[in-house]
Amino acid sequence: MSNINEALEELMTLDGAMGGCIVDYMSGMVLGMTGGGVDLELAAAGNSQVVKAKVATMKSLDIKGEIEDMLITLESQLHIIRPTAKHEDLFIYLVLDKAKANLALARRKVQAVENKLEV
Prior knowledge:
Largest sheet: 5 strands, antiparallel
Distance between the termini: 10 Å
CATH superfamily: Dynein light chain 2a, cytoplasmic
């Protein structure tokens, strides 16, 4: 089990990790953040809208199940958004340097961090 700061520290051990945060997507509020690469508070607010829109779309389409993660691929960065199963309104957000990161390892690390997260 890990708290928010420990979870964020673990995410930053990934090759290519630039920044990350844990966000309450109902309010867009950042509960904890580390690193940079982008304005994490602004990104958290914007990505909260992305998560809300996807949840609403899935509901409208009567798609069962939960979102495991979302990937946003940019020219030089990868952004992973992972809603947490245990903490219904939270997501983990991680920004990676595309040239240095291994996407498969990053997705696995975010999943492992989510499983240990205690808020």
